[in-house]
Write a structure and sequence with these properties.
Number of domains: 1
Structural class: mainly alpha
Shape: globular
Largest sheet: none
Oligomer: single chain
Number of helices: 8
Number of strands: 0
């Protein structure tokens, strides 16, 4: 009976030790594996666009939409479509890393989770865009891409309680303002977009949509690396 009681006590201690860590946030090392994927998002998007455009003699970045590189007129539409699908998958995975990274940086977890969901939905929209090239009505993913717009603002609000991340928070707010403004122009505000310049405006809009993801992922990755090396 004494041996059985000792065994039960040991099992109880072991269970208590493991259950205390069962619901803890992922270790920083796990986040670091996902955060670099965010850095790849703008690289994959612009790289895919430039490589696909190089295979289409006479293609104009000024007058044509980027999605036309995956459409029926393109010489190698699969090149653009598969690249965009890959970028979407990478963005979807990076969303989990950035959400966890914001939490480990001391940010508000609720806002970080919502921001991660927004970024993940954008990744899904990119996957659908590649799976259903123009002129398929599903190419627009039923507006899922618009989920990206509030993501930088939500991330900034998540970090607002952390003075050490003030610089990144300000950058995210600026990114939100620029992306919102360019999106408004693309949707017709001011009547600035015409068929003769739509490609140019779309590229400008893309510069507000993609680079901030990579920069934020890089900054979080560096910050968490320094945070992990600080004495406790």
């Amino acid at each position: 009976m004494t041996r059985l009681a000792c065994s039960r006590a040991s099992a109880a201690r072991l269970l208590a030790r493991h259950s205390s860590t069962m619901f803890e946030e992922p270790p920083v090392s796990f986040t670091r594996r996902l955060l670099p994927l965010g850095v790849l998002v703008p690289v994959l998007y612009f790289g895919t666009m430039l490589v696909a455009a190089s295979t289409w003699p006479g293609y104009s970045h000024v007058t044509r939409y980027a999605s036309e590189l995956g459409g029926p007129e393109a010489p190698l539409p699969w090149l653009f479509n598969r690249g965009i699908i890959t970028m979407g998958v990478v963005c979807l995975l990076a969303a989990f890393g950035m959400g966890a990274g914001l939490g480990q940086a001391g940010g508000r977890r609720g806002l970080a989770a919502v921001a991660a969901v927004c970024l993940a939905l954008f990744g899904v929209s990119m996957i659908m865009g590649g799976m259903f090239p123009m002129p398929d009505e599903r190419h627009g993913a039923y507006g899922l891409a618009f989920a990206l717009v509030p993501a930088p603002l939500l991330m900034a609000l998540a970090l607002a309680n952390q003075p050490r991340w003030k610089g990144l928070a300000v950058f995210l707010v600026v990114s939100f303002v620029l992306m919102s403004g360019l999106l408004g122009v693309m949707m017709g505000a001011g009547g600035l977009v015409t068929r003769a310049n739509v490609g140019l405006w779309q590229r400008a809009n893309a510069l507000t949509m993609f680079p901030w993801i990579g920069i934020t992922a890089w900054q979080l990755s560096r910050g968490l690396a320094r945070q992990g090396s600080e004495p406790r």
